[in-house]
Write a structure and sequence with these properties.
- The N and C termini lie far apart (73 Å).
- Helix 10 runs antiparallel to helix 12.
- This protein folds into four domains: 4-130, Beta Polymerase, domain 2; 138-221, Hydrophobic Seed Protein (Orthogonal Bundle); 242-426, no CATH class; 429-487.
- A hairpin with a 5-residue loop joins strand 11 and strand 12.
- The strands form four sheets. Strands 3-4-5-2-1-6 form a six-stranded mixed β-sheet. A two-stranded parallel ribbon has the order 7-8.
- The protein is 52% helix and 8% strand.
- It is built from 26 helices and twelve strands.
- The protein is elongated.
- It is α+β, with helices and mostly antiparallel strands.
């Protein structure tokens, strides 16, 4: 909430300039719903050119800082001391009534005189659009079609609010969204990204992605997903490719949030404080590994339509789709302005999402060599890819999930997790030799071949084939002699 210092300074400054202010929008809505709020908007009855001076007076009196965001429109931000929420001031020279009616949804077109804050009562709120009734009915209703098209991000925001508040979209508003869905393409990628991430991190994320698709927004935001619609899959899958991709997001969130899935499913998932901490790790700008896993779930089969073949026996195959999904997934996330790190994390998960299932097919479990290669190739998303595999399996089976088969599969995947977390995992062993040792001993130039030799030696060390420096150099010499590429001009220093 507003700190007492800023509240006092704001009231004093308004009295001195004979102006009024109202807390408006989401802060009033959330207070009436008993929810916390992330920021506070104040509508101030002054001219735009006067607002920066007023903001500076408030900031100086309360030990905060003032930033002018839009001088022409009169928008400033008060940035309090660390740990407190920011406050945005907006000039409303035409008065509070018209300002509220320019907002997006009726439940956001609520105002409360600043002098009453933070004691919010519905009877004291300004409500020109019927937002209080919509709050009671748990309904998202746009003030008008024009307010949606004025900023097309509001089309997506309607679904995000549904997800966060547990509301439903009004039928007329749904018609307006569907009619104008293509306008979302005009919105900057980073604005779409932020709303989209807030949507997919909510419980019942698959339900709201299906709603996004029903309204025509999902494949406007990610056109590449349209190719997955109605693409049939082998008998082991319950849904087509697009529905499966959406359901994988829901399964991933259900597993990570430990809800929305049957108890018989969740009881087979290893879940502890270390995993909670892992998936809560920040990736960029308030996003987490949990968010990135959901994105990978949505995009992991993005290349299936292009890779689909049907044999003479009628068998459907998607050969190579993990590899061919890397570039499209990276392009999608780049378009939506995700960070380089997040794009690489998703690309790796897309490329390797079948690996956990493949390396656990043997009754004896994965070999030490297979584990080493999996740990090496998945790098920073080793654990994340395992949980993508679990979500992928659940979404493939859907309501036809066999509990005994699920138990066996989850146990195999958690066997990989246990190996990774074990202190005895050879993936962490120190190098016996380095690249300079190889170049000096074998007369090699720096180049890709040295890197390939090092990978081979690390793998042999991890699987127990070599244990000493001399054994490493002996194996390197053997590999050098037996590899034709080693005799190329890149390899031999004397040539």
């Amino acid at each position: 909430m507003l700190t007492s210092e800023i509240l006092k300074a704001t009231r004093q400054a308004l009295r001195e300039c004979h102006s009024s202010a109202w807390v408006v929008g989401g802060a009033v809505r959330d207070a009436l719903l008993g929810r916390g709020c992330a920021d506070i908007d104040l509508a101030v009855d002054v001219d735009p050119e006067s607002l920066p001076k007023l903001a500076n007076i408030i900031a100086n009196a309360s030990g905060a800082a003032a930033v002018t965001l839009d001088a022409k429109r009169g928008v400033c931000r008060i940035v309090p001391k660390s740990g407190l929420i920011p406050i945005d001031l907006t000039a409303i020279p035409s008065g509070i009534g018209p300002d509220l009616l320019r907002r997006d949804f009726t439940i956001n077109a609520l105002g409360l005189p600043l002098q009453l804050w933070p004691n919010v009562e519905a009877s004291q709120a300004l409500d020109p659009a019927g937002g209080l009734a919509d709050l009671s009915a748990k309904r998202i209703r746009a003030i008008s079609e024009k307010t949606l098209t004025a900023d097309p991000l509001r089309l997506l925001r309607a679904v995000r609010l549904c997800a966060e508040l547990g509301f439903e979209i009004d039928s007329e508003t749904s018609v307006w969204i569907k009619r104008n869905a293509a306008l979302i393409k005009s919105v900057a990628g980073e604005r779409i990204r932020d709303e989209f991430v807030r949507l997919i991190r909510q419980p019942r994320s698959a339900h709201h992605l299906h709603l996004l698709d029903y309204l025509g927004l999902l494949t406007q935001i990610i056109p590449e997903l349209e190719e997955a619609r109605d693409v049939a899959q082998p008998d082991g899958h319950h849904w087509d490719v697009l529905q499966h991709s959406i359901e994988t997001v829901g399964s991933a969130k259900g597993v990570l949030q430990q809800e929305s899935l049957p108890a018989a499913v969740l009881e087979r998932i290893q879940w502890d404080d270390d995993l909670i901490g892992h998936f809560n790790q920040s990736t960029a700008q308030g996003r987490t590994r949990s968010d990135v896993l959901a994105l990978a779930g949505l995009l992991h089969d993005i290349a299936k339509p292009a890779c689909k073949t049907v044999g003479e026996d009628g068998r459907i195959r998607f050969l190579g789709h993990p590899k061919f999904g890397v570039i499209p997934s990276e392009k999608i996330l780049q378009r939506l302005r995700f960070s380089v790190r997040e794009r690489r994390m998703v690309a790796t998960m897309v490329r390797e999402h079948l690996r956990p299932a493949l390396i656990t097919r043997s009754h004896d479990g994965p070999s030490s060599r297979a584990l080493f290669r999996y740990f090496r190739d998945t790098g920073q998303v080793t654990v994340d890819t395992l949980f993508l595999s679990l979500a992928d399996y659940l979404a493939a089976k859907g309501p036809r999930l066999d509990q005994e088969d699920w138990h066996a599969y989850a146990e195999r995947i958690h066997g990989i997790l246990d190996a990774y977390r074990s202190e005895s995992s050879e993936v962490q062993v120190p190098k016996l030799v380095n690249g300079h040792d190889l170049m000096g001993t074998l007369g090699l130039k720096p180049g890709p071949f040295v890197g390939r030799l090092m990978n081979s030696l690390r793998e042999a060390q991890a699987t127990g084939e070599i244990e000493t420096r001399s054994e490493a150099l002996a194996l390197a010499s053997k590999l050098f002699v037996s590899t034709p590429a080693a005799r190329g001009s890149e390899a031999l220093a004397e040539e």
